Amino acid sequence: MSTVPSGTPCWTDLATPDLTDARRFYPELFGWTGQIAPEPEAGGYTVFLLEGRAVAGAGPPAIPDQVPIWSVYVATDDADLVAGRVERAGGQVVVPPFEVFDRGRMAVFSDPAGATFSVWQPLAMPGGEVFGVPGALSWTELVTPDPEGAKAFYELVFGWHPDGQATESAAHTGWRLGARIVAGMTVPLGDFPADTPAYWSVYFGVADADAAAARAAALGGSILVPPRDIPAGRYTALRDPQGALFNAITLAPQP
């Protein structure tokens, strides 16, 4: 069983051409330890642990020329059912549902604007075991040039409803599942070409965003957006040494 309700982001993993360096960079940045899958077919897939609890994964690319990327997984009770909904809503089934050893079933999809995401139907592996604390997945957000299309698509697929607000720099929407905000969407305002690919981004909690940015750079990564304050907290956008984009955020206290 997943540690979060169906329809809620539950896992993230990294596809990287340099798994050895990922096992160096992220543990030094977030205090993780790594647990390598014993099956040879897994290609060295590593589950990162925070104080013994699973928080993220990393493995080799599915195809040779795949760019390094962090992927978002949404929990589901039925991956096949979600695949049918994706197709009916105008998305694409990139990888049909399949079994991952005895751990669970997964599938990879893309929404009509091209943003890729996955689902996880847990068996032995529930997904992430801790969220919203330093070193753990704390937020996921869709960046898209087609917010109206995304609103229609994700409502049909996951039952999400938009809960939005606008700022001077971007239009923000929270995805609401029942009473809870489970993810977000942002549309940068201004010059944002309609053919710009959409993508899902991941945010890891940190105790100090400024210190995390400096540490990432010292470890061979790069700072895309220097630390700055946003309504959710203080965040920075980073790339790892292989170029994978991720974010670090010091979450604001909840009222």
From TrEMBL:
One Pfam family here: Glyoxalase
Protein name: VOC family protein
Domain of life: Bacteria
Gene3D superfamilies associated with the record: 2,3-Dihydroxybiphenyl 1,2-Dioxygenase, domain 1
Signal peptide span: none
Species of origin: Micromonospora thermarum
VOC domain ranges (all copies): 8-122, 136-251
InterPro entries: Anthracycline_SecMetBiosynth, Glyas_Bleomycin-R_OHBP_Dase, Glyas_Fos-R_dOase_dom, VOC_core
Family matches, as SUPFAM superfamilies: Glyoxalase/Bleomycin resistance protein/Dihydroxybiphenyl dioxygenase
